[in-house]
Amino acid sequence: GWKMFYCGGDKEPAKFRIGLATSDDLVTWTKSAANPLLQDGYEARDPMVLRVGDEWVMYYTATSAPEGGRHTVAAVASRDLVTWGGKRTVFASEREGKGGGPTESPFVVERDGRYLLFVCTNRRYIETAVYESDDPFAWTEGGRIATIPAHAAEVIETPAGETFITGCGWGMGGVYLAPLRIMR
Fold it and tell me: Which residues contact 130 (CB under 8 A, 6 or more apart)?
């Protein structure tokens, strides 16, 4: 079956919850009885799951405290995709605030033992920063290697070995796709 991780919003942003739904046909979805999987910070949302070693890692955007603070990317780990723990702050922006800050829509890709973290900067609406690290649990502002004109970027790899990057957002009229060449 298929698994979808999502954010369940709330009128109070400190009560946003990340949940799981499953499907056998990609049309009908059932919420997990284990929901909410986690709740953290101001508008903790935008979950992304990656296999790292022998565990699954969920990356998501949050803030250093429920009332706001430094914008962060946090990570929790799981062996069964239901029970998550061991929260770590894997990236902390120098900026502080609430809501869509410079850690929105985190997406992580592994390339030859290096890990790339893509996050919206929200300095300009259509801008994603790319940070590089050899540790899937530690990126720094000094590790920025690129800025890409995309919002809420996700990386797609085809079975043929092609790599694409997406872009989407409010008022953009859909999802956009472009070839992505990662050179080092």
Answer: 116, 117, 118, 144, 145, 146, 147, 148
Q: Alpha-carbon Rg of the chain, whole angstroms?
A: 16
Q: Is the pLDDT at 45 greater than 90, yes or no?
A: yes
Beta partners for 70?
Answer: 96
Task: Tokens 């809501």: give the residue.
Answer: 99
Structure token pair of residue 132: 């590089």
Per residue in 5-38, pLDDT (tens digit) is 999 988 888 889 999 999 999 999 999 999 999 9
What is the Cα–Cα distance from 95 to 74, expressed in whole angstroms? 15
**Reduced to 3 DSSP states, what percent helix, strand and coil does the chain have, rounded to the nearest 5?**
5, 50, 45
Tokens of 146: 């690129």
Residue-wise pLDDT tens digits, 131-154: 999 999 999 999 999 999 999 999
Whole-angstrom distance, CA of residue 86 vs CA of residue 138? 14
pTM for this predicted structure: 0.94
Q: How many CA atoms lie within 13 A of 12 on its CB side?
A: 7
- What is the Cα–Cα distance from 166 to 114, expressed in whole angstroms? 21
